[in-house]
Amino acid sequence: MEKRDFGETRPREGEKAGIYVHVPFCAKKCPYCDFYSIVGSAFIKDFVRAVQMEMAMTPSPGLFFDTLYFGGGTPSLIEPGDIGAIIEAARKKYDFPALAEITLEANPGTVTEERLRHYRIAGVNRINIGTQSFSSRNLTFLGRIHSPGQGKNAIRFARKAGFDNLGLDLIYGLPGQDESMWLEDLTQAVGLEPEHISCYMLTFEPGTPMDLNRRKGDFTPCPDDRMAGLFETTVDFLSAGGYFHYETSNFAKTGVSGKNPGNRNRYQSRHNRKYWSGVSYLGFGPSAHSFLPPVRYWNIKSVTQYLNCINRGHTPVAEKETLTREQQMMEAVYLGLRTADGIDIGKFEQKFKADFYTMFQEPLSELVDQGLLVFSGENVRLLPRGMTLLDAIAGRIFEYLVF
Asked: How many domains are there within the chain?
C-alpha cells in the first residue's frame, strides 16, 4: 500500500497536533453551506473503511496528537460503532493519549439520547450541536432539518448521555434580524448552560443556493453596520453570562460572570485552537486538509474518487503547497488577530527572524489611535470593535510585509 510522503517537514518542539476527519454526508444540504458534502448515506460504510485505510498509509513524523475532530457534513449520520472504529484506528496508528479531546459535530435532527450515549461509549467526549437558532422562522430560512424543540432536546439528550463538555453553534445576521431577536437566541442558548458557544455571522459563499437567491433579490441581507452591532451585542452578552471570548466566533464557559475570567482554558476547543496557532494537523476523508508547516495538503473533493484512490492503495491527496515565508507571516498575523491572545510578538520574531515593530509600526500606530487594537504585554490584539473589521485590518497590515 502506498504511503503518504510529507517530505522534510518537522514538528515544532513540544507541539501537540490534531486529527480531523471530514464526514461528507448530509440528510439535506443547507443552502448557505459551501463545505463539501453529498446528500444520502449510500457510501457511508465504504467511507468508514476507507478512512481507516487512509490512516494506515499516513505516517506521523514525530507528532504527538491530543485531539480528534469529526466535522462535516453531518458526522452524526455515522453509526456510533463506526465512529468508534475510526477512533480505535487512530489510537492504534498514532501517539494518541487516553485523555485526548474527541469531538463529534451533531445535527439535532439526527440524534436521540440512546444514540448520543453510544457515541459516548465509543470514545467521543465532546459534542458540538448545530443548533443555529431557536426560532422556527430562522431555521426555515437556513434550511435546517430540525425544529427549535429538537434543538433543545438534543442538548438535554447529550447531558443525559453523560456529556459534560458540550458546545452549540448559532448563526446571526439573518435578513430582518434585529438586536432583540438575536438576544432571544442568545438568552435561550445560555439558559441551556453549554460549556461552549460558537456564534457565526451569516455569510454568502459564492455558488451556494443562498448566495444565488441573494443575487436574485429574494431577500435583503443584514446591513454591515447592524451586523457589527450584533457582534458587539454577542460579546457583551456572553461575557456577562460567564463566557470568555477567546476567538472571533467562539466563547468558552468560565463559570464566572463579569470581568473575572475564571478558568479561561478549560472549555476552549483544543482542536480548533490548532488552526489559529499554526499547529500541525492531519486530515482524513474527501476534501480534508493536512498541515505540516510549511506544507499544506488537501484531499480529492469527491467521495467516489476518494474511495477509488483508497481501494487502489493510493493516497487521495489532490494537491499540496509549500508556504513561502511571506505567506506564513500573513497567516500568523491574520489567525493571531482572530484570537483574544492576539499575536505573540516574541514568537513571531523568533520564527521569522524579523523585527515586528519595525515592520508594522505605521499601521499598528494608526490602529491603536483608532481604538481598534491594543498592545498587551508581549502581545498585540484587536479590541472587540476591531474584530468586526478583521479582514480590512489584516489587509492594511499586509501592505507592510517585506517580500
From this structure: 2
